Each structure stands twice: as structure tokens, then as C-alpha cells.
Amino acid sequence: MSHNHNSWGWMLALDFFFGGMGASMLVIAGIADLFLGAGKTSLLGDFMGPVFVACGAGLLTFELGRPFQAWRVFVNSQAMLTKGAWTMTLCIVFGFAYFGIEFLPIAPGLISAYFGIEILPIVSGFASASFGIETLPWRGLAALRQVLAVLCIITGLVVAIYPGILLGRLKSCPLWNGPGLMALFLLSSLATGIAAHIVCGLILPAVANGVLERLPLLLAALLFSQFILWAAYIWIKITGTTEQEAEAARRWTRGGRYAALFKIGFMLFGTVLPLILFFFANPIAEAVAALLVIFGGAIMRNLVLYSGQDGTGAPAILGPVLTNVRTE
After folding, report:
1. Quick check: helix, strand or coil at residue 248?
2. What membrane topology does the annotation report for this chain (predicted)?
3. Burial 313-326 (b: 16+ CB within 10 A, else e)
4. Sign for the pseudo-dihedral over CA of 75, 78, 82, 84
5. pTM for the complete prediction?
6. What is Dmax (Cα atoms) for the chain?
7. Where are the domains of the chain?
8. d(Cα 186, Cα 194) in Å, to the nearest integer?
9. For 131-167, what is each residue's pLDDT tens digit?
10. CATH of domain 10-316
11. What does the angle CA 169 – CA 171 – CA 176 come to, to the nearest 5 degrees?
């Protein structure tokens, strides 16, 4: 891989995508746990949340150009990238810890159902005979699980918003300039996170499906909001900002190089079509709609990243952390 600091590539876009989607999955699981109780989201979805964030972190290390020197990202306290890396790390740790505490109480039942082995009496007998423990420790971890749920919500929201903060601070990039990008990234992260939970719920249903049954309606509302906010964002950039911002936005709408991908790939197939499919209220339509939303989220991040740095020299503003990792 080239170590020249010339552009940000698809790996950084997918870092934003996987990180935002996985973090939002943890936010949704945490909120459902705190307000509705445990077991309301798919166990597979709760596991894939931190896995997706970890995938994003892995892609970031390769985007840096020297994966074995990625530790440098964590030592520059002044760099925005460092704050994001630490938050992603905490999100991964809290996410796996939350899943572990959620999984332990039901693990014996799953082993019994799939393998016919009654492991709970074996474990209980061993703990009692060897250590004098009469009650298995995970039976009293409900409070810790809820604390971890809160931490997942906090770190998950930060990870979901973080790309919008990072890009919005780069004043030399007309399309990114301003706070609007934070709301758009948060909205897309929540949409893809809910979509991923829907897919996971169809593969491995939750103990109680009340939350999963309502997620398509919530996602439809987010998709409608996403359509309105993106249309407003592009319109404001074209009509009410500087000429540089207007020119950057026109590439998305008026026959520019990104127009087809934005209007057809993201707005039509990634937003409008899944919004329509959710009204059919059957598992196949919901699965297709959710996959389209995930696909649209990946397109959006690539569009934002590539179009925002056209002729701006944006990568040079990442700061000393990325430069040091790539060049030393």
C-alpha cells in the first residue's frame, strides 16, 4: 500500500460505515435493555454490534498505511483521530462485555437445546464442590449489565457522530463544512444499525420479539427523515452558502460525477425503495429493505468522503498522527 498522504480511500469510508452501524446497534440494544428489559433484541445483533465496530477499527489501521504502527494513533492527545480511536476502543470493550453478561445466563439452555447436554447442573455442581459457590455468579449481574448498557449508549452515540465531527471541522472542504454533517451521519448510523438488527432478528429471533416487530416502523420514520434532511442539506449548500460549497453540491444533483450514485444508489435504492418495502409488513420485504438500507449507508459514506476531498487537499489536514504513522 502506498504511504503517500494523497487521499482518503474506501477503507476509511468503510471504517465510518461499520463503526457507525455497529455503534448504533449497541445504542439500540442498550436503550431496549434499560427501558424494556433484557432479551428484547436479537442476541446475534448484540454480538455483531461490537464486531462491526472492531471491523471499522481494523480498516482504519490499514488505511493508516502501516498497521503495525497504528498504536501511534492512541498517543497524540491533541488529534481528533486519537479521540475517535479511543472512543471506538471503549465501545468495542463495553459492547463485548455487555454481550458476555447477556449471553452467560442463557448459554446452558442453548447448549442443551443444540447439543443435548445439560451443562447447568454440571457447572453448578462443580462450583459448589470445588469452591463452595452455591449460586452462579452471573445470576446477580443484572445491575452491571445495565451499567454496561449505559456505557454502550454513550460511546455508541459518540462513535456514530464522530465522522461528521471529524469531517465538519475541515474548513477547506466545501461539502463538509458546517455542523449539518453530524446530524446526517448520526441519522444514517441509526438507520443502518436498526436495519442490521432487523436482519439479525430474522436470523436469530429475540427472546421477546416486541422490540424487533416495531423496528421496521422506526426505521421507516428515520428513512423519511433522512430523505428530507439530505434534500435540505444539498439545497442549502447550493442556494445559501459560498460558491465553492454550491459547486461541490451541484456534483451530486446536476449531472455531476456523483449525481447518479447519489440520486439512484443512495436516495432511491438506499432510502425511498426500502421505505416503501417496509409498508408490505412481511419478512422477505423487511429483509430486502434492511439490506438496501445497509447498502445505501455504505454508498453514502463513500460519496461523502470522495466528493468532499475533490481538489481540496483534504487529507493533508488529518493532522500529525496519520502523517507520522504513514511516513515513519
Report:
1. helix
2. Multi-pass membrane protein
3. ebbebbeebbbbbb
4. positive
5. 0.83
6. 77
7. 10-316
8. 12
9. 444 444 545 577 888 999 999 999 999 999 999 888 8
10. 1.20.1630.10
11. 70
